[in-house]
Amino acid sequence: MVRITKTSSLAAALCLIGASLTAQPALSAAARLPFNSSFEAGTFAEWNGGLDSSMTVTSSMATDGRYSTQSVMTAGRPTDNYKEYVFGDNRRVAGEVADDGVWLTFDSRFDTGFHFADGAGVHKIAIINLEDVNDGRRRYQIIINVIPRSGEYFVDHLKWNADGSFGRTMPNVSQNIGTPATVRFGQWDKLKLYIKQNTLGQANGIVRFWVNGVLKGEHTDVQLRENVNVFPNKLIMSNYVTESTAYGTQRWDNWHLSETDPDGSAVRPNPPVLNSVQ
Questions:
Q1: DSSP letters spanning the chain
Q2: What is the CATH number of the domain that holds 267?
Q3: Is residue 18 a part of any domain in this protein?
Q4: Would you place residue 136 in the very low, low, confident or very high pLDDT band (cuts 50, 70, 90)?
Q5: Were 267 and a residue from 33, 108, 191, 263 both cysteine, which residue would form a disulfide, CB within 3.0 to 4.6 Å?
Q6: On the CB side of 246, how many CA atoms lie within 13 Å of its CA?
Q7: Which interval of the chain is the signal sequence (predicted)?
Q8: Which of 117, 266, 257 has the alpha carbon at shortest distance from 191?
Q9: Poorest-confidence range of 128-142, 195-209, 233-247?
Q10: What is the pLDDT of residue 171?
Q11: Per-residue pLDDT tens for 234-270?
């Protein structure tokens, strides 16, 4: 009897452990996700390279921890700054695809006195690439921009051809809910993006965009990859500007990229608060 009781107790315990493990949230399926970067190493070590002629890690201000990234733009000089992070089935990773889309959140700031380039149509902040796993060429891009003339945040959707040439700008990913959100110069804004690629050949891809916790854009009819079998697999922190009339300081902090909503379904994030460093 005693032996049976011990065996039964052990079996029951194992069942409870198994049930507990089963109840835990599933680990991310896509390779190298989730990704977090607040630059707390004081370097770009969390990222996978890129040009940074005027992009540096700084301790002058931050929204998470002590450090953030800044780009100081100077009038008379074009700017091509970027840092990238590869994930999923990117050819440099060759892992599992992000087949259910990705969520991106980060903090963005344009310092007081920042001047967007004269005549420029957009100013880039962040990019998600859908790249071909065979040759590494970008086929589609989702870009978080600012429209210089109005200061409005804008999500751009670009198609690239198989030979590497530019295809066209795709429609239907602008702010379409309420009053358009604009840059608050001298303050941090929390930006959040969800994208999910369409079923091949169908217009059912999803793009949702939040500014400081408020949903500003929602599109559920996007041909996010048309009929090309590519998936989100590269994140780019960017402020590429070809015009040379932009000047001022642009900043980024507190990056998070994952396959699940980092805020959950019931949490509405507040705008980030500046952490001063003495």
A1: -HHHHHHHHHHHHHHHHHHHHHHSPPPP-STT-SEEE--TTSSSTTS-----TTEEEESSEESSSS-EEEEEE-TT--B--EEEEE-TT-TTT-----TT-EEEEEEEEE-TT-BPPTT-S-EEEEEEEEE-TTT--EEEEEEEEEETTTTEEEEEEEEE-TTS-EEEE-SS-S--SSSPPB--TTSEEEEEEEEEPPPTTSS-EEEEEEETTEEEEEEEEE-SSTT----EEEEEEE--B--S--BEEEEEEEEEEESS-TT-SS--PPPP--EE--
A2: 2.60.120.200
A3: no
A4: very high
A5: 263
A6: 26
A7: 1-25
A8: 257
A9: 233-247
A10: 73
A11: 999 998 777 789 999 999 999 999 999 999 853 344 4
Q: 220 lies in a domain? A: yes
Task: Enumerate the β-bridge partners of residue 146.
Answer: 123, 153
Q: How far apart are CA 27 and CA 225, in angstroms?
A: 26
Within a domain: 170: yes
Q: How many domains does the chain have?
A: 1
pLDDT at 272: 54
pLDDT digit string (tens) for 56-72? 999 999 999 999 999 99
Tell me the residue range of the domain where 255 lies. Answer: 29-276
What average pLDDT score do residues 115-123 get? 90
239 is a domain residue:
yes
